[in-house]
Amino acid sequence: MSTKWLSPDEERAWRAFLRVVVAVQTGTARDLASIELSEPDYEVLSTLSEQPDHTSTLGRQADKMGWSRSRLSRHASRMEARGMLRREPDPADGRGCLLVLTAYGLEALADAAPVHVASVRHHFIDRLTPEDLLAVERIARRLGQAP
Q: For the region Disordered, what residue ranges are annotated (predicted)?
C-alpha cells in the first residue's frame, strides 16, 4: 500500500486545525484552573447536571462523554474525594454503579458556568463571524460522520 502524503495545502490546514484546538483548550483550561476546576471536572459536572436526578450509570456517562469507563472511574474517584459526586450501587446492574452529582458539585458547576461561558466566548465564539460558526458546525458534522 502506498502512502498518500499530504499536499502543502492539506498539511497547512491540518497543522492550523491542531493549533486552534490546542489554543482554545489551553485557554479554557487555564480559565477553569483559576477557579480550581479542570476541564474534565467541568465536563463531568455539566453532563451529569443534564441527567434526570443528576444521576447516570458510569457506562452511560462514559459513553456520553466519549471516555473509557476506566478513565471516568478514576476521575470520578478524585471528584468523589472532593465531594462533587458520589457513587451508589446500580440497582439494574450489580457490577455497575451510579454517579450522582452532590449539592456541592451543583454549586461548583453554578459557580463555574459563567467563567466557562466567558472563556468559550473569549477564546472561540467572539473571534468568529456568524458565517465562521456555521462553517465550524458544518465541518464538525462532516467529521463526526462515520467514514
A: 49-88
Q: What CATH number is associated with residue 115?
A: 1.10.10.10
For 67-82, the pLDDT digits (tens) are: 999 999 999 999 999 9
Integer Cα distance of 91 and 86 in angstroms: 15
- What 8-state DSSP symbol labels residue 51? S
Q: How far apart are CA 60 and CA 106, in angstroms?
A: 20
Is the dihedral angle over the CA atoms 31, 77, 60, 142 positive or is it negative? positive
Q: Report if residue 1 sits inside a domain.
A: no
Phi, psi values for residue 13, rounded to 5°: -65, -45
